[in-house]
Amino acid sequence: MKNLLIILAGCIALLTASPSFAQKTGDKVVCFKSNMHCQDCANTLFEQLRFEKGVKDLKIDHVSNTVKVVYAEKKTDDGKLQKAVEKKGYKAEKISEADYAAILKQAEEKPAANHSGNNH
Amino acid sequence: MKKILIFSILVVLSILGTAQVTRVITGKVFANENGSLQPLPGVNIIWENTRQGTTTDSDGSFSISQKSNQHMLKFSFIGYEPQTVHIDREAPLEIVLKPNLEIGEITVVQKDRGTYLSTISPIQTERIGGAELHKAACCNLAESFETNPSVDVSYSDAVSGAKQIRLLGLDGIYSQLQTENIANFRGLATNFGLTFIPGPWMESILVSKGASSVLNGYESIAGQINVEFKKPDSQEKLHLNAFASADGKTEFNANSNIRLYKDMLTTGVFFHAENLSNRIDHNHDMFLDHPLSTQVHLYNAWKYNNYKGLMLHGGLRFLNDERQGGQIDFREDMPRTTTSPYGIAIDNRLAEAVFKAGYVFPSQNSAIALLTNAVTHSMNSYYGLHDYEGDETRFYANLIWTQDLDKNGFHTLNSGASFFINNFDEILNQRLMDRKESVPGIFTEYTLKPSDQLTLMAGVRADFHNMFGTMVTPRMHFRYQPDPRWTFRLSAGKGYRTANVLAENSFLLSNFRELVFDETIQEEAWNYGVNFIQKYNVADRDLIISAEFYRTDFRKQLVVDRESSSQQLIIAPLDGKSYANSWQVDVRYPVVKNLDLLVAWRQNDVRQTIGGELVEKPLTSRHKGLVTMNYTTNLKKWMFDYTVQFNGGGRLPLLPDASLNMAGMDTEFPSYTIMNAQITRYFRYWSIYAGAENLTDYIQKHAVIGHENPFAPGFDATRIWGPVSGRRIYMGVRFTLNYN
């Protein structure tokens, strides 16, 4: 019984440990059109951006070649994030959120087979 | 000191050796449409294994800058066969892509799961990757299975610190342990092999269940565990790991990859040191909970890849491991008599050289590979008044020829020959045991893969053993995937192994009874298995259910009999039946975003004929349950892991002479629960982790029977079914620097 309680406590601790990623006041969104082309490149960019100051959430997609960043306005700005992308050798052309949504939608409609890789 | 100096120099060299020259490669890409060449716009071009790429313009032309370590350029476009070209000149390129008649493979991008259940391989395989290895903070292979539902790890006895694995309910000796596809840490290293492979050196572990491919030899009965070390040509430039636990264990690991000539000639240097010198006795039985130990392990790997089909791999390893256990007052300089405290000491020294070569012929439909290793191992030990020493040398070579029998690769044949020499010299007290094995063998394996839905693999090998004669090993695998959501597998196969009577059972020496055994025998068993994996998309997340059944039937086996005699522990060939049935179901599902849940249940039915009666194998849990939870935050900066293992009860062996059994000694051991938890915080180059193993501090009661007088009848430190050391709280830090 004691063990069961500890298990339960562990579950609750894990579940409540999940911080909320909803956009809060003071947060800003910036979207870029880039040129990654591959999953490895998207990973590299993810590794670079996730530790940039102020970054709260990230969405990087190599199929549509887009980057979306949610960040704390007080800690960084669009320009710094743009530089962080460019530092890794990729383009970072700032686009509006509407354009971003449109590009993403367009990419989803294309057949998924266009980025082949080894499927183990 | 000198070693440290050399290591530091290598580390510095690796950091300096990255100056790069850039030049520009230009060219044009065409499509071959029924014989006429058309410029192809929008082709993806990328330097292999990098993130640097470009696309062709509207007229098919491109330009891309090349750094000194980049020379394989990959071209891909929907509906065309991808092409990789070696760039050795600055002249403009002309690339022609051929239309691909088949529809390209589809890659599913997902969160790094850690453990990956393959549905492609015809053999049931689980890959434990980097993310999963981070969940067990440290220290070695034994601890890497904490979050794995298939492999159980348990203590062999209460004094030596030896750990053994169980796969399909069977002891670790029936699973073949390999490092980079060569059987390793066997023979004298059987009992400590798991603790000889440092966690931070590993890139991945492959666990395959049931009969395995005949290419790797006639051993492996329950399955195979293959450890891949980090590769010298990987992105990792430097990795450091320091670990300390509250009970005084410290550990340091370092590895560095050095690119000596571009990314063609690379070397990796690995270092591991660990120490535990705190004398701890939580249960106050006057015996150390775990032995004092010191280990130093060095490994240097070399890789040459000319990117035209030739690959060479070499490696050197040195290992020194010393441990000392027993009663808390025992010191190594004490005379070993019945008036001194009881002590054990085990020293292992091991050196290994590995060489591998592979060549893919330009036609791309045949390849040849050579795998060899040579090992020398010397071991000195004593358990109380027993002296046990051993020397082992072995050499192994395996040559494999792969040939596609048709253009489409529907039919493939792998054939080859292997050679194995093993010299064993052991002395237990005054008794000498030695043997020389020499086993040439040949094998062939046919694979039929007419489509992604179906794979049939049938192999057979013949080995000619100098002591046991000819062994024929047939093995068969079948995989059918009628729908990407469902994968069925069937397997059947035979396996053999030479039992190392003493080396595998040396931990039984911490026992008052006399060890009785005869010359070694060849063990022989059949294994049959069925496995069914289902994948569903539930609420936009993957639900994976895996169900399996395996049966192992022993024809010949060496059985440990703890029950027939009060004066002797008898190790003798099986006389009657011996089998193991194992049923398992795993369910994997991310219950909420970023929270991965694994629930698994396994039922074991392991029976052996002991003393003329078919009984449950003692000290074996009847079932095991596992729940693992992993929560990773959105940006993967935090990782929380929590694992609960439920271990079912089982049968305990009793002595026939009731007066020697301790009062209240049961015939059954209880079920028990073990919990582990860990938190990891990642920074750009650093990560810090802290956690606890065996959170509830569960320890088997009476681990050392008769601890009051270890030299009197009744003493037994080998009747072990549960954890012998308690809660371990630890903390550690990792540092990683990558190329690029």
Write the layout of secondary structure elements.
The complex is a heterodimer of chains A (120) and B (740).
Chain A (H helix, E strand, L loop, with lengths): L1 H15 L10 E7 L5 H12 L4 E7 L4 E7 L5 H10 L5 E3 L1 H13 L11
Antiparallel strand pairs in A: 1-3, 1-4, 2-3
Chain B lengths: L1 H15 L5 E12 L2 E4 L4 E4 L5 E3 L5 E7 L4 E5 L6 E4 L6 E5 L17 E3 L7 E4 L1 H4 L17 E5 L7 E5 L2 E2 L3 E5 L2 E2 L18 E8 L13 E7 L6 E10 L3 E13 L3 E12 L15 E14 L4 E17 L16 E18 L5 E18 L2 E19 L6 E18 L2 E21 L2 E12 L3 E15 L2 E13 L2 H5 L8 E4 L4 E17 L2 E16 L1 E4 L6 E6 L4 E15 L2 E16 L2 E4 L6 E10 L5 E10 L2 E2 L16 E2 L2 E11 L3 E8 L34 E11 L2
Parallel strand pairs in B: 1-8, 14-17, 31-35
Antiparallel strand pairs in B: 1-2, 1-5, 3-4, 3-6, 6-7, 9-10, 10-16, 11-12, 12-13, 14-15, 16-17, 18-19, 18-45, 19-20, 20-21, 21-22, 22-23, 23-24, 24-25, 25-26, 26-27, 27-28, 28-29, 29-30, 30-32, 32-33, 33-36, 34-35, 36-37, 37-38, 37-39, 39-40, 40-43, 41-42, 43-44, 44-45
Poorly predicted tracts of residues of chain A: 17-22, 111-120
Q: Characterize the biggest β-sheet of chain A.
A: 4 strands, antiparallel
**Main sheet of chain B, how many strands, which sense, barrel?**
22 strands, antiparallel, barrel
The number of distinct structural domains of chain A comes to 1
Shape of chain A: globular
What proportion of the residues of chain A is helical, as a percent range?
A: 40-55%
Provide a count of the helices of chain A: 4
**CATH hierarchy, class of chain A:** Alpha Beta
Strand content of chain A: 15-25%
Question: Under CATH, the topology of the largest domain in chain B is which?
Answer: Maltoporin, Chain A
| Count of β-strands of chain A | 4
- Helix proportion of chain B: under 10%
CATH structural architecture of the largest domain in chain B: Beta Barrel
Can you name the CATH architecture of chain A? 2-Layer Sandwich
Task: Kindly report the greatest chain-chain contact and the residue count on each side.
Answer: A-B, 42 and 45 residues
Strand order in the sheet with the most strands of chain A = 2-3-1-4
Strand content of chain B: over 45%
- Taken in chain order, the helices and strands of chain A follow as HEHEEHEH
